[in-house]
Design brief:
The protein has nine helices and eight strands. The protein is an alpha/beta fold and about 200 residues long. Strand 4, helix 6 and strand 5 form a beta-alpha-beta unit. Bound molecules: S-adenosylmethionine (SAM).
Length: about 200
């Protein structure tokens, strides 16, 4: 991420959007909080505000959160000091949770993607890894930025994203069943730019 996007992510406005709109929407799409004792993984946790919402609002008992950027993990460590017994943070790649956490197949009840998979050049590998570490019946919660948004002048001028093989909402949704992920109920789409939903690991 470039400096402008880092500033946009480390920002009270981003936190308010996540707290007041995104998480309530995702909770509705996921059918409510996680079951008691649930263990979650978070891909690309950034400064850890979403991690806290996974604990407080989705009611996860434990979260393993990974980010490629050591600066973000340092910020998350500071933010989550009080929750450190319930959170494990690692610098690492969302496409390889075995290296980051030793995550076995089916290790988690839920995996969270808060606006991160569009940053990964091999986005299909990130979906494959999310599916691998989910137990059957587990939940994949996603909030994504599509190729439609990334093609907008504002995104191209201000931010730095992979430019090839970006996904539309339809392409992202079509990829889910290839990894045993079935969309649960309805989705929220915002102008073809953003896609929010939840999917169940089917087998
Ligand atoms: C747009 S930010 C989102 C941060 C946070 N999830 C949020 O919603 O505020 C994307 C984050 O993904 C991280 N990231 C990018 N590629 C990654 C990868 N392959 N594995 C893990 N994290 C990655 C970036 O360092 C950045 O912190």
């Amino acid at each position: 991420m470039n400096r402008i996007e880092k500033a946009a992510i480390n920002n009270p406005a981003r936190r308010a959007l996540q707290r007041l709109y995104e998480v309530p929407t995702l909770l509705r799409l996921a059918g409510g909080p996680l079951p008691p004792g649930a263990k979650a993984a978070e891909l690309g946790c950034g400064p850890g505000y979403g991690t806290r919402l996974i604990l407080d609002r989705f009611k996860a008992a434990h979260v393993d959160a990974v980010d490629l950027d050591p600066y973000m993990i340092t910020r998350a460590q500071r933010r989550l000091t009080a929750e450190r017994h319930r959170v494990r943070l690692a610098v690492g790649d969302a496409t390889d949770l075995r290296t980051a956490f030793g995550a076995a197949d089916g290790a988690y009840d839920a995996v969270f993607d808060f606006a991160i998979i569009h940053h990964i050049p091999d986005w299909r590998a990130a979906l494959a890894e999310a599916a691998r570490v989910l137990r059957p019946g587990g939940t994949f919660v996603f909030e994504e930025v599509t190729a439609h948004a990334l093609a907008r002048p504002s995104y191209r001028i201000l931010f730095d994203h992979p430019t090839e093989d970006r996904f539309t909402a339809e392409e992202f949704l079509a990829e889910l069943p290839r990894h045993g992920l079935a969309v649960r109920g309805s989705l929220t789409r915002i102008q073809g730019d953003y896609l929010l939903g939840a999917a169940t690991r089917t087998d």
